[in-house]
Structure formats: C-alpha cells, structure tokens
Amino acid sequence: MTQAEIKLCSLLLQEHFGEIVEKIGVHLIRTGSQPLRVIAHDTGTSLDQVKKALCVLIQHNLVIYQVHKRGVVEYEAQCSRVLRMLRYPRYIYTAKTLYSDTGELIVEELLLNGKMTMSAVVKKVADRLTETMEDGKTMDYAEVSNTFMRLADTHFVQRCPWVPATENSDPGPLPPAPILVISEKDMYLVPKLSLIGKGKRRRSSDEDATGEPKAKRSKHSTDNKEPIPDDGIYWQANLDRFHQHFRDQAIVSAVANRMDQFTFQTQTSSEIVRTMLRMSEITTPSAAPFTQPLSSNEIFRSLPVGYNISKQVLDQYLTLLADDPLEFVGKSGDSGGGMYVINLHKALGSLATATLESVVQERFGSRCARIFRLVLQKKHLEQKQVEDFAMIPAKEAKDMLYKMLSGNFISLQEIPKTPDHAPSRTFYLYTVNILSAARMLLHRCYKSIANLIERRQFETKENKRLLEKSQRVEAIIASMQATGAEEAQLQEIEEMITAPERQQLETLKRNVNKLDASEIQVDETIFLLESYIESTMKRQ
Amino acid sequence: MAGNKGRGRAAYTFNIEAVGFSRGEKLPDVVLKPPPLFPDTDYKPVPLKAGEGEDYMLALKQELRETMKRMPYYIETPEEKQDIERYSKRYMKVYKEEWIPDWRRLPREMMPRKKCKKGPKSEKAKDTSKGVSLTNTADVLKKIEELEKRGDGEKSDEENEEKEGGKEKSKEGDEEDDDDAAEQEEYDEEEQEEENDYINSYFEDGDDFGADSDDNMDEATY
C-alpha cells in the first residue's frame, strides 16, 4: 500500500470512526495480517480498546479474520474497501435514482451499519420514511420489503457469508473463530418473512390515527425479546454491482458524447448501447473483457417501448458503432442479423486515455495535449519526428516534451544500435505507457483527496468557535419559535451574530462545499482509473 | 582505449541531436532544489460540475459525516480530565445507542472478559486439554510468578487452579487465560507489594531458603 493510500485511509477512518479505530486500522493496513495481542502491543492500546475497534471494523467489512494453525486468529485489513467509503454518497444517490426514496434509505442504512438483518433494515427504513410523511400517514413494512426484494433480485444487496449450522452432537471444544461460508446460489436468496407492521414516528404515537397506539407501544417494548425471524441472516450492499452500474453509465455517456451530437434523433446510439448493456447485466460476469454476443434481432426486441426506429435504422446504427475507431462495439458474427458485443476492456481503456489527455490539457496547455495525442497515436516517436508531425517549433516542442516527461506522462524508450548501448548510437523514442501513466495519476488522485480532506478539517477547526456559536443561536431560535416568540425577539437573537461574523460563516460554508464537491469528483476519476487498471491486470 | 578525445575539452558521449539540442546551444540550468511546494500554475482549474445530482450528493456527504459521528460505531477518545469541570458538559453529552455485535460471527477472543475472579469450577472446565502452551516470554514470566505465589501459600487453592488452567491451556483459551491470569496476578502482586518493600521470594521454589517461610507471607524473605 502506498503512503498516499495509507494516509487517505487514515483520514477516512478517523472521520468516520474516531481515533482509536483509526490507529488500529492504519496499523493493520501497514503491517498486514496480525493476531490480537501483537496489535495491542505494537500500538500501545489496551486490549479492551483493540477488541472494540476490531469489532467495529469487522462489522463494516473493513477487516477480515482468519484462523491459522495452533488456534491463532489473525486479522487483516482491506485497504481498498476503506477507500470505498469516499463513494458512499454516490452509491446512495444511484439507489435513489433507481429505486426512489425507499431504495435510497435501504442502501444508506446498510452502508452506515455494515451489515444488518432484513427485518432490522425494513423496520428502520419504515420508521424513517414515516417521519417524513404527513401527519397521520405511515409507511407499510410490506412496501419496504418489496423494494428490498427488488434490490436483492438485481444483486444490489447481497447476503453476508454465514455461520454454517452445525449439529449439536459435537461436544468438542469450540473453534476459536467461526468459519463463515458463502454459496453463490444463496447469495441473493431473500428469506420468506411476513413482516407486518407500519413505521412509527419517533415522537409519541398518540396522535396516530390508526387507533392502536397503546397496543403497538407495548409490543414495541417486548420487540427486543421476540425472536427475530431471520436471525443470523445478514445483508450487505454489493459494491461490485454498483461499480458495474457506474461503468455502464460511463460507457453510455461516452457514446452519447461521441455519436449523438451529429444525429437528429437525440441519443439513439446511446440508447442502443444502454439496451445492450442492460441485456448483458446478469449474463456477463463483471470482470469479462467483452459482453456475450447479442444478435441484432434480440436488440431490436429489447429496445425500450417508446423507441420507434425501424430494423434497418437499427442495423445502420450498429454498423456505425462497430466501425467507429473507438471500438466500443464490435461485430463478432453474422448470424441473427449480425452478432454484436461491447468491448468492455477497450471501452475502459479509452475512458482512461481520455482522462489522461484531459489532465495533460488542463495542466500543460492545448499544444502539449496535441503532442500527447500524437505520441499516443503513433506509439513511438523521435524528437525530430515530434516536431515535424505536431508542427510546433523545435524549442517549444522540446520544452513541452520535457515537462511531460518529468511529470511522468510520457516515457523514453531506448533502442540501442550497438550491443554496448553507447548513447551516441542509441535511438531515444518518446512513448506513452497508458498503464503506468494511469497508475501515476491514480496515486496523485489519492494525494489530492487527502489534501482536500485535510484542508477542510483545517478550515473547520479554524472557525470552530464561530460554528459553535451559530449552532447555539440556531438552537435558541428554534426553541423560541416552537414556544411562539415574537418577531422582535427573534430579530434580537439573530443579531447576536454580527454581520462580519455572518460573512465569515458564509465564506466558510462556501469553501467547505467546494472542497466536498471536489472530493466527490476526484473520486469519479479514481473509479475510472481503478476500473481500467483492474481490467488490465485481470487480462494478464 | 577510452581516452579523452578532446584532451580535456567537454564532449558529449551521446548524440546531442537525438535529444533535441543543437550543438553549441546553451543548455538549460541545472535544478538544484526540489520543485516548489505551491507552484504557480499557468492554467487555472476547470470549474466543478454543477447539477442536481451533484448538489444532492454534496448534501448527502455532509449529512453522512454528521450521522456517522452519532452512531455507536464512532468510538470517542477518552478525554483527559479538565481542570474545572464544566456544569454544561453534563447536559451536552450525546446519548448514543449501545451496539452489541453478533458474537456468533466473531472470533471468541473478541468477547470482553470480565474482571472478576473466576471460581474454581470454571477454571476446571477450561482444563480440557490439549494444550500446547506458547513459548513467549510473557508466559514464562507468568509461570515464574505463579510458582512464587505457590511458594507463599496464601490463596494457594485458587492459584493452583489458575496455574493448572495456565499451564495446560486449551488452544483457544490462550489469550483469554493469559488475560485473566495476568489481571489476577497483577492484583495479587499489588496487594502484597503494599505490605512490604521487598520482593517476596527471591529464590525459586525448591530451594531450602524459601521453604521455611512458606507459611507466613507477611514477612519479607531475603
């Protein structure tokens, strides 16, 4: 794990779980797999604290344990999973766009708690939704359960590995840690529960119009003692499925940007690609380099209902997409009107390359970007050739090439003419190695986010006193409004915050918003680069 | 064979043309320090994406940050005692829900151990033994302490149990037993240390010196 990643993990853990968990987590990330006592000894924290921290980390799927020989249990941290915490808002927002508020809250609860049983999720989400509804209305458990089942069917939530049910005849000593099993076919199996009930408001349910508040209240207090029907079956959010969705979104918008500007009928090509991706969602594993071949007839049948394009037009579009130099869509056969695949690996490669080009352009200027694209296209070029092809004067071209070289976007390839590698008789060619440039950029992204988080924390700490004061004033105003105060009194309280202080608060809010928004966007770049690197490594 | 071709004149070992400089041209200055920490950029960054989705995600992010701090998973660092105890602090405490993990899914060593001394029964139960005791120095030290205590006689019954439990450790109970044994040992030692300044038994069990003072622990042994 690089230093940048470790630093970022440390900041994320500290923000979300506090310093003790951060200390343990970072120690595990740095040193790898370790048993409990060694962790306590090396970090200098008490055993009790270490246990608590590890429980929290295991609950959130950030640390896994393994039993080694002699009964020693070792704990290992998953650094990449810690970095996913940056992407939580994106997961929740995606769930909202696909399954509306109910889905959004389900995914949010699962992400905040790591793992939960289905009944617990349904109850909590129903309560939260009821809070936001108008007085007298409540959210039914059945509706929430339905949404949960739909999420499970489309693989957005999955079951956690579970403890196998052992026969009780075995009286031997218990193992030091349960071995959790998981089977592919059971991973999305929703237990048959009959969850009956409605959400409850947090305040007294006396105003509840249903007329059974007392009965509900007493049942609620005994709820904790009732056996939970799906005890032991825990669910977690399936991040890989979300990633697959993001990848599909990226490909569709890339096609839309490229092809749909020039057609009259907006977004036809992107719709076609979207349909193809949707059809391949379940059939193609997420790491595959290309989707299963789909025939043109199948695609025609699966187009969304509103689209009235004729078969010939569809065929024309498909041919156009297949001939495009970007090679997102490829033709793999002629049966069934033409078999087409989507080249996932190539698509990710193009997206990563586009990111690199854009970074070069924004950092060094458009002439540098021209040189960069030139070297990308021609693969290997000599200094002289670069000047000629790019039509840029020698001095400037040289300067730009060296700037990019020192930024590690471009590298030099030596080709010796003689076996003694004499420099005067060696070719030096400029080339772009996309994989290593992508890795360099990814590393830089991690550093950027760490810087953004630190700056945000600094800004907040600087103005801590002012923030606390404004919170107190707001609390006072809220309580006064609740008890019905006059306008004049409210005015007076509001004036406790002076105008320059208000100004300062405004500036602080604007800065913090900007920093937060930047974090979210850098994370999008991280996603693209990581997907590309992962896809490339899998193919090797 | 190498020899200075130009007799002391500077000459490049490689073809300078290939890298792009023409002969006789002034080469750029050598950089003698690391690049500046906050360099001036010629090109200002592009403005951030703005839109409904981005705004929603921003609000979500800030809300999540606040929510996480109130969840039971956020473990507060124990604060140092302040010099003056503020009255308002009592009323500003945020009451968090207690979270109990599902112990069936976690290794057995995760369960918090109670500090009370265990009765002899439970010690015996742990004696099912397969154990291979681990050879780390902590264990050896504890064994020595236990042997010392045994020599002193007081509470010998329980300590015998503990020792048994300590020696024949079952595989999984290793850390737990150590913990208990350590806590109880420390407790005993502190109690005894308060009474006198000297180490209780300087000699190991079996020596003639120590044997005499077995009965009376209060006196220091030399």
TrEMBL record, chain A:
Keywords: DNA-directed RNA polymerase, Nucleus, Transcription
Keyword Metal-binding: no
One GO process term, biological-process aspect: DNA-templated transcription
Sequence ranges assigned to domain RNA polymerase III Rpc82 C -terminal in this UniProt record: 146-350
GO MF annotations in UniProt: single-stranded DNA binding
Function: DNA-dependent RNA polymerase catalyzes the transcription of DNA into RNA using the four ribonucleoside triphosphates as substrates. Specific core component of RNA polymerase III which synthesizes small RNAs, such as 5S rRNA and tRNAs. DNA-dependent RNA polymerase catalyzes the transcription of DNA into RNA using the four ribonucleoside triphosphates as substrates. Specific peripheric component of RNA polymerase III (Pol III) which synthesizes small non-coding RNAs including 5S rRNA, snRNAs, tRNAs and miRNAs from at least 500 distinct genomic loci. Part of POLR3C/RPC3-POLR3F/RPC6-POLR3G/RPC7 heterotrimer, coordinates the dynamics of Pol III stalk and clamp modules during the transition from apo to elongation state. Pol III plays a key role in sensing and limiting infection by intracellular bacteria and DNA viruses.
Family of this protein: Belongs to the eukaryotic RPC3/POLR3C RNA polymerase subunit family.
Quaternary assembly: Component of the RNA polymerase III (Pol III) complex consisting of 17 subunits.
Protein name: DNA-directed RNA polymerase III subunit RPC3
Organism of derivation: Mustela putorius furo
Taxonomic path: Eukaryota, Metazoa, Chordata, Craniata, Vertebrata
Automatic annotation (TrEMBL), chain B:
Region ranges (Disordered): 110-222
Bias (Acidic residues) ranges: 173-197, 204-222
Subcellular location: Nucleus
Tagged with keyword Transcription: yes
Primary location: nucleus
Start-end of Basic and acidic residues biased regions: 120-129, 140-154, 163-172
Gene Ontology terms: cellular component: RNA polymerase III complex
Protein name per UniProt: DNA-directed RNA polymerase III subunit RPC7 isoform X2
UniProt gene name: POLR3G
